[in-house]
Amino acid sequence: xxxxIVSVIGGKQTSGASGDVYxxxxxxxxxxxxxxxxxxxxxxxxxxCRTAAAAQAEWAAVPAPVRGRVIASVGRLVEAxxxxxxxxxTREIGKPYAEALGEVRxxxxxxxxxxxxxxxxxxxxxxxxxxxxxxxxxRVPVGVATVITAGNFPVAVPxxxxxxxxxxxxxxxxxxxxxxAASAHALxxxxxxxxxxxxxxxxxxxxxATAYRGLETALGEGTVHKVGFTGSTEVGRRIGELCGRHLxxxxxxxxxxxxxxxxxxxxxxxxxxxxxxxxxxxxxxRCTSLGTVIAHESVREEFLTRxxxxxxDAVVGDPAGDVLCGPLLDEKFAARFEEYLGWxxxxxTVVSGxxxxxxxxxxxxxxxGEGGLYYHPVVVxxxxxxxxxxLEETFGPIVGVTGFTTLEEAIGxxxxxxxxxxxxxxxxxxxxxxxxxxxxxxxxxxVNNSTSGAEAHLPFGGNGKSGNxxxxxxxxxxDQFTRWQALNWDYSGKLQKAQMDVAEIIPDPDFRL
Length: 513
Known about the structure:
Layout: E1 4-5, E2 7-9, E3 12-14, E4 21-26, E5 29-38, H1 42-60, H2 64-80, H3 82-93, H4 97-117, E6 125-127, E7 133-141, E8 144-148, H5 156-167, E9 171-175, H6 181-193, E10 201-203, H7 208-221, E11 226-230, H8 233-245, E12 251-253, E13 258-262, H9 268-280, E14 290-296, H10 300-313, H11 331-341, E15 349-350, E16 378-381, H12 388-391, E17 398-404, H13 407-415, E18 419-420, E19 422-426, H14 430-439, E20 444-447, E21 463-464, H15 478-481, E22 482-490
Parallel strand pairs: 1-5, 8-9, 8-11, 9-10, 11-12, 13-14, 13-19, 14-17, 16-17, 19-20
Antiparallel strand pairs: 2-3, 4-5, 6-7, 7-22, 15-16, 18-21
């Protein structure tokens, strides 16, 4: 029997009223059901927000260093269960096991960082323009944060929201992707085991449309004070519009069309290695995955030769083994990837070999992909600035290649799609690296490294179509889950009016030597 999992609200399992069941399947073995997910209805979602609102004040009253110790306990529990959690991630979404272990490590790193932030939720003492008066600033929690996350990083990315939000004294309602619900449920249980009071963290398992309706109700009721969303640009726009109607600014981490510029002086073997991981790690299903290689015309052919050889040699297969690519996450992503393959035009050249789903009739060497959502990795040369393959995010194992002659041209091409998440340049010239950094619109820049990769103490986030400028990770994410409060304390015993009762020292403006 496959376990059925349900939402958890106020510490209690809650099936909700919809009765709909979603089967989360192993994308490497489509006949294997990982979990049966009882989907909640919109009222259950908004009810979870009310529960969180009722629990938040008591949690905020817990001293921040103590909240930090709770977060530290989460980290130790995740560390103790790392292999089990990573195996579940691999089984549920098809992420190669080595990558899944790295994802779990990211949770531990995030918890380790925010343990210290429990003792560093600093405000400032500010000098006043008047005597016998002191000014202070304080970070205070926003209240209730609703967090909606995608399933390509089913445990690491949620931790980027949950850990700082809870550390700062907020209560949270978390809606994970339904196709990664088992991984999310496991992570919730680890958080709960750390001693969080009931109602401080609530897990709502439902689909996106239902969550949107529940969020709309909760925002209207005033029980949600911050929304964090990781997902597509299209859905991010809708959430941004909804929050804007309630005068809220969400934290939006959206898609990317991430460029990699290869300069004439680049170490081509290193660039190929970076492009291989960035383009096809997690089967190209990261928001930071490589979209387009922009290679200088003097090295373009040599880069392509080496890159296509590396792609041909890369192993695609069972994600439990030592592979570069496993399957796509879910049937809906496979169907969407088929659409992207339809964007290949006559003026393009597919240099990587076969395309489409790996089957006995369309194998990759001896691998036939039977039973799973496996696809050939695709490299397309000759993409042009007006092509859909150049301009739009392609969530899956496909990388475009184009050329340039000057760095200014390369920067223009890199910025053209209008996304601004991650970017990369391969060069040995510091001038080129810094010129690229100053010209690129991306929130993250790598030099001689891939477009993918984050560290727990570095700001993560994008601009343009990739987000609204909010940042996750490090101290910067605290600006998403706290608000500044100013205090002025006048102990003069009289009313002192700012800008009016200010002492003034008069200079002699006519003085000359």
